[in-house]
Specification:
0% strand; mainly alpha; 129 residues
């Protein structure tokens, strides 16, 4: 009976050791799962934050594209205005040339009239009594 009791006690101790190891393994597994869950939560939060950042970047890119379109439109308008100014300056230059030509013609006509006036004065002077 003593041998049986001794074997039972040894078996009980072995079983208790197995149970202790199982409990420690279970605690370690639960801790590992908890850490994994915490890491997953952190990763999920970081992923959400990254998604929000990407959304913000997409909005900013849209704003930049809109500004680029406005700048391009303004540049086209400025080009059109510059071309119109260039045409106007050319027309003014042509008009100034025309006025200069007409002024020269007027001066020449005035000289001719002055010459004719002198000649007329001489002719009239010949008929004085």
């Amino acid at each position: 009976v003593r041998a049986l009791a001794s074997r039972t006690q040894t078996s009980t101790q072995e079983i208790q050791g197995m149970i202790d190891r199982l409990q420690k393994g279970t605690v370690a597994a639960v801790d590992a799962m908890r850490r994994s869950s915490d890491a997953g939560d952190g990763t999920s939060a970081q992923a959400n934050q990254a998604g929000a950042s990407l959304d913000t970047m997409a909005q900013l890119i849209g704003t930049i594209n809109s500004m680029n379109a406005q700048i391009a439109s303004a540049a086209e308008e400025q080009t059109a205005v510059a071309e119109e100014i260039n045409r106007s300056v050319h027309q003014i230059a042509v008009a100034v040339d025309s006025v200069a030509d007409e002024t020269q013609l007027g001066a020449q006509t005035s000289r001719s009239l002055a010459d004719l006036g002198q000649r007329l004065g001489q002719l009239v002077g010949q008929f004085r009594i």
